[in-house]
Amino acid sequence: GSSLRRLIWALAIMGACIGFSLHLAELAQRYLSYPVSTEFSNEGADFQFPTVTICPTDNFVDFCQPVPLFIPMNYFRCLQDMVLDNNRVYKLLGSENWNASLRVFPYNYYHHGRLSLRAVAYRGNLFQQPYETVLYCRYNSQPCSFENFTTYKDEEGLMCISFTPTNRTIVNAGPGNGLYLVLHHVTENYLTDEEQIDYVPGFQVALHESGFKPDMSLGFKVPFGQKTTARVYAETVTKVNRDATPCSKNLPNVTYTMNYSYPDNFENQSFFGDYQDCVIRIKQEEFRDTCGCLGTHLPLPSELMNDTLVCHQLPDEVLHQNIYAVTFRHDDGTVGHTDYRISNWTEPDDRSFDFDKLIMLSDYLKDNWDSLNFNRSKTFLRCYDQVLNRQKSQGVTTTNCKVRCTKTRYRDITTTSSWPKDFQLAAK
């Protein structure tokens, strides 16, 4: 009898253990399948100084350096002239009624005009170089110089500079003991008054791991004429690999086309892959499949650039013409109709301003509608705006995008103070 009772108890305990194990397994499976992200962070451990990328926010060229042409014209124009005229072309292409009065400064189309400059922006030495920008450099209490910086071509900031230290260990913490810079930038302003509300003239600074593409939208601003101090914190984030939110120890590298100013000679650059690169790829594939072009405001995956145009690419023939906003006045002096006129120069001697030689921009577009593919430019513009608005309001599906299981994130706290007006840099 006692042996039978012991056997029954043993079977009961074994059954309870099996049931409990199955219940735990079910709970674990349910936990792993929940659409939530679980991660652990370790802030401040083994601090490694980040790569620092600096882009100008409102300026891009310090003098009127001529932009080389790929068409048979004997004169040149510079970028700051082009950005003031390109937006007027896009304003007309985006208008339903070409006979209506136009705005002298079509602010809503400045972004389009600026993006079209990516096609010509790197056709020469059109930007301030690191030796002109970095006046003073000190890192880890030791002197450094512009030679410690490399150039980086950004889709928004165009020409930027990056500082990647060989020794990432900082001996002493505190202001001035990490990276200390005095920067100089005197260039032509391309921000409108409306844009300067959100984009402070000066620099945008992004902190990121070496080898990863910087996301300049996540950085901090350094306004002109101010001393900006940034306290940097490093955080190592380790993510739990779950079915609903998988992570990967090794994501494939990505390659972007950074410079397409020279046809058939694109400049590509590779980076370590990240979650955001997958999101960019999905967005660009939607632009390609919907519009037949790639979003010019986004990084350009090199394999997609092999057989696809960008959405903002005006012909050289129109980029190198002056476009004026001409406002007519009534007899009583009140402001009347405003239209756009284009110079339509063909020879260097034509460059003197003569109102009688100007032609209506609308007539110029109609006369060259097929030969210069303005119909394609108009189609790209409208489709680009539609897809961009949809992505901004609804986002994209990123179910198949993985994150890295371990990643370092940098967080900054900035303070800004004014320089003394009579401040002089010490000279030896």
UniProtKB/TrEMBL annotation:
Any one GO CC term of this protein is: plasma membrane
Topology relative to the membrane, per the entry? Multi-pass membrane protein
Signal peptide region: none
Membrane-spanning parts: 7-25
Keyword Heme tagged: no
Which keywords does this Swiss-Prot/TrEMBL entry list?
Ion channel, Ion transport, Membrane, Sodium, Sodium channel, Sodium transport, Transmembrane, Transmembrane helix, Transport
MF terms from GO for this chain are: ligand-gated sodium channel activity
Gene3D superfamilies in UniProt: Acid-sensing ion channels like domains (2.60.470.10)
Its main subcellular localisation, reduced to a broad class, is: membrane
Q: What Pfam families is this protein classified in?
A: ASC
Subcellular location(s): the record lists:
Membrane
The UniProt family comment states:
Belongs to the amiloride-sensitive sodium channel (TC 1.A.6) family.
User: What is the protein name stated in its UniProt record?
Assistant: Amiloride-sensitive sodium channel
